[in-house]
Design a protein that fits this description.
146 residues; mainly alpha; 2 domains; two-stranded antiparallel ribbon; 3 helices
C-alpha cells in the first residue's frame, strides 16, 4: 500500500492540511481545482450576497455537477470505444474472410493455369500428330492435275 503523505495547501486563502496516499502534485491539483471553482462561483453576483453556508452548498453543487458530467462523459466515451472496438473486430473478420477468399481464388487460378498448360500441351501434341499424318499421307496420295 502506498505511503500516506501530508501537505499544506492554500484553499480559498486559507492554509489547510491534506493527507492522502496520492502524490503531492495530485493533492495540489485538487486544491487548485477547488480554488478555480471558488473563483468561478465568486464571479456570479448572487454568490456574494449569500450566507457562507449557502456559498459552501453552491460550491458543493458545482463540484458535484462537474463530477456527474465527467462520469456521464466517461460512460459516453466507453460506449464509443466499445462501438469502435466492435467495428474493428468486424473489419478484422472481413479482412480474414477476404484473405481466405483470395487464397481460394489463387488456388483456383493455379489450377486453371495448370489445366491451361496441359491443354496447350495436348494441342501441340495433336498438331504434331496431325502434321505427321499429313506428311505421311502426302507420300501415298498422287496429286490430281487439271
Amino acid at each position: 500500500m502506498a505511503e500516506k503523505k501530508t501537505i499544506r495547501v492554500l484553499i480559498d486563502n486559507k492554509v489547510m492540511t491534506m493527507s492522502s496516499c496520492e502524490s503531492e502534485e495530485y493533492m495540489q491539483k485538487v486544491a487548485n481545482y477547488i480554488n478555480n471553482r471558488i473563483e468561478e462561483c465568486e464571479n456570479v453576483r448572487a454568490f456574494h450576497g449569500a450566507a457562507p453556508d449557502i456559498r459552501h452548498r453552491l460550491l458543493e453543487i458545482n463540484i458535484a455537477d462537474d463530477y456527474l458530467k465527467a462520469q456521464a462523459r466517461i460512460v459516453e466515451l466507453e460506449q464509443e470505444l466499445k462501438a469502435k472496438n466492435n467495428d474493428l473486430d468486424d473489419i478484422k473478420h472481413d479482412s480474414i474472410n477476404k484473405a481466405m477468399m483470395a487464397d481460394d481464388m489463387k488456388k483456383k487460378l493455379d489450377q486453371v493455369q495448370k489445366e491451361l498448360k496441359e491443354s496447350e500441351k495436348k494441342v501441340m501434341e495433336l498438331q504434331l500428330e496431325l502434321k505427321g499424318r499429313n506428311n505421311s499421307g502426302n507420300n501415298n496420295v498422287n496429286p490430281i492435275k487439271r
